[in-house]
Amino acid sequence: AQSVTQPDIHITVSEGASLELRCNYSYGATPYLFWYVQSPGQGLQLLLKYFSGDTLVQGIKGFEAEFKRSQSSFNLRKPSVHWSDAAEYFCAVGPLSGTYKYIFGTGTRLKVLA
Amino acid sequence: GAVVSQHPSRVICKSGTSVKIECRSLDFQATTMFWYRQFPKKSLMLMATSNEGSKATYEQGVEKDKFLINHASLTLSTLTVTSAHPEDSSFYICSANPGQGNTEAFFGQGTRLTVV
């Protein structure tokens, strides 16, 4: 069965420090992978996506993610975190075959210390 | 990118009343839209798939009589929470996909429903 796992529920980093959010997936075929960010009380904004090709993808706001097929992972990284990056981050896989459905991980809440 | 607008962003209603939430694709047509519910500190759970011109497809465990979905046009889907109760309080988010090979889903801003 398809699934997405985000092992870290909460992460706290200091402003200026580097960040890595983990995402592991289970999917029968080559997945389409996404990272979304949700600020408090807001909808979801797409940070980046991977469909094919270069396994290191660049996104908005200085984020990047690397697809590693051997590890079934799609971890999100940022070299230097800003206070405005504090939010909830969701990894997602989809769409499921024949549909436009997506499966989301449980999310990682990022706290940034000044 | 494509824009999906959701309205209202927040609503408070009394227990027993019904609430309608709208999801509009502003610059593309969407034959299919999706409604998600987000519980506190939880991920997004797909509730139903809204199909233009036909009945919605509900996920297992979602009460179709409680959550009425209408997709009357290619740019509008509505979710009506009927006879709302406090346990229906949640954050509801819709998404739409332009289709035609576009695999990215575009999300609305979400609606915070509070039933008192």
How would you describe this structure to a colleague?
The complex is a heterodimer of chains A (114) and B (116). In chain A, the strands form three sheets. In chain A, strands 2, 5, 6, 10, 11 and 12 form a six-stranded mixed beta sheet that branches. Chain A has a four-stranded antiparallel beta sheet with strand order 3-9-8-7, with no helix packed on it. In chain A, strands 1-4 form a two-stranded antiparallel ribbon. The mean pLDDT of chain A is 91. Chain A has 114 residues and is mostly beta strands. Chain A has no helices and twelve strands. With 116 residues, chain B is an all-beta fold. In chain B, strands 2, 4, 5, 6, 9, 10 and 11 form a seven-stranded mixed beta sheet that branches. Chain B has a four-stranded antiparallel beta sheet with strand order 1-3-8-7, with no helix packed on it. In chain B, 36% of the residues are buried. Classes of the chains: A mainly beta (114), B mainly beta (116). Chain A binds chain B through residues 32, 34, 36, 41-46, 49, 51, 90, 94-95, 99-102, 104-107, and chain B through 1, 6, 32, 34, 42-44, 46, 49, 93, 95, 97, 99, 103-110, 112.
